[in-house]
């Protein structure tokens, strides 16, 4: 039997980005996420003047992060509460070359803003990845059976 929680986090760890937005606004934007499975949180580094940061400046908002990665075989719609964070230790931990490309003064740049998405639930489709997909399609053509596309499940955090 598949441990769905482990499968979800393991595959999400290997995916670099998705589309993030607050639920009250249908606009999703591409964002790199950083997983913290121990506490059920996704972290994001953005700029204070972005629409996304401004949308949670007055307080936490319901939000959604959507990931799609055929190579890792994970497709997920992840819901949670998005808020601003001033956790400098977490920013130090997450800071990397990609993040530094966006901020002239590095992590000391006054425009750097850390976002925290506390997960509440996720709907997940986990497949065997792109090679398994091709195999299942070919197998279905030979056997006449429907292809096995993997697991579909929901998680509550």
From TrEMBL:
Cited Pfam families: Pyrid_ox_like
Protein name: General stress protein FMN-binding split barrel domain-containing protein
InterPro entries: Split_barrel_FMN-bd, Stress-Dev_Protein, YdaG_split_barrel_FMN-bd
Location of the General stress protein FMN-binding split barrel domain: 3-148
